Amino acid sequence: MLVSMTEMLKKAMAEKYAVPAYNINNLEWTRFILEALEEIKSPAILEVSEGAIKYMGGYLTVASMVKALIKDLNITVPVALHLDHGSSFESCKKAIDAGFTSVMIDASKYELSENIKITKEVTDYAHQKNISVEAEIGHIGGENSNILYAAAEDCLKLVKETNIDFLAPAIGSVHGLYKGTPHLELTLASEISSLTKLPLVLHGGTGIPDEMLLEGIKCGICKLNINTELQVVWTRAVRNFLNENKDVYDPRKIIKAGEKAIKNAIIQKNKLLGCTFKY
Ligand code: 13P
After folding, report:
1. Residue range 48-74, pLDDT digits in tens
2. What's the pLDDT score for residue 39?
3. For residue 8, which of 49, 48, 42, 46 has the smallest C-alpha distance?
4. In a domain, 184, yes or no
5. Would you say 121 and 89 are in contact if contact means Cβ atoms under 8 Å apart?
6. How far is the centre of ligand 1, averaged over its atoms, from the C-alpha of 209 (Å)?
């Protein structure tokens, strides 16, 4: 069933585990993720970036595909379809109107007052329709951008003035592959968690050592975003398959060559975060 993320993350917060959110790129990945999570009875958060939505055809295509797969594959665990890094109110509205059950508004590049204004516009619209909202504050790093750590008092102001459901504060993680060992400001996460009392989201989940993730859960992290890791394991498996099978040209065989790698990575990650057999 497609649901918002609210109940699944409240449960995670109360029971001290984290729900991984996996980015989807196409129909096959969506199927692999759903089947793996059904096998271990884990709540599923399927995240989609605006780039991936464009790649797949549009908001409606993605929402319809996910709904149809849930039905055809007899998925019984709760599934949230979440817009990852929505860049504007319009983008979040399009996702909600198409059938997404959760959205992230990322107005973190703006000053706090503007971030609050845009985020509030999204929560006002989303909450009327029982759609959950995640917002970002500070700036999560990436290939071409630096980390700007979130300030705890700004987090509280954003939460109070917008009524968001989950908060993604920048605490040192970056999107993509880390150069060297990641450093997370977990004391800051703890402080933000006790101030805001909301489930916290950690972006840039790929490459963070296991012990650091487990510490993160103790400090209030309830949702862990993972994209690159699945891309890396899928690509490695497909590259090996193609090297060993030079005559194959059926795209179904090629894409499927990465199925086991994706499913294994998911099962391992969910086990680590304590997110198995929850439903
Ligand atoms: P990674 O690609 O580093 O796993 O990060 C994913 C993410 O945070 C999506 O929002």
Report:
1. 999 999 999 999 999 999 999 999 999
2. 98
3. 42
4. yes
5. yes
6. 15
**Is 279 among the domain residues?**
no
The pocket around ligand 1, CB under 6 angstroms, is made up of 23, 84-85, 175-176, 203-206, 225-229
Pocket test for ligand 1, best of 178, 225, 231 (most atoms within 8 A of CB): 225
List, for residues 82-110, the tens digit of each pLDDT value.
Answer: 999 999 999 999 999 999 999 999 999 99
In a domain? residue 171: yes
User: Tokens in use for 198?
Assistant: 């909301």
Distance in Å, CA 47 to ligand 1 centroid: 10
Residue minimizing CA distance to atom 1 of ligand 1: 204
CB-CB contact of 90 with 109 (8 Å) = no
Q: What is the pTM of this model?
A: 0.97
CA of 246 to the centre of ligand 1 (A): 32
* CATH number of the domain that residue 134 is part of: 3.20.20.70
CB 193, CB 220: distance < 8 Å? yes
23 with 53: CB under 8 angstroms?
no
Residue 144: pLDDT over 80: no
- Whether pLDDT at 29 is above 90: yes
Q: Identify the domain containing residue 105 by its residue range.
A: 6-273
Active site members = 84
Does residue 1 form part of some domain? no
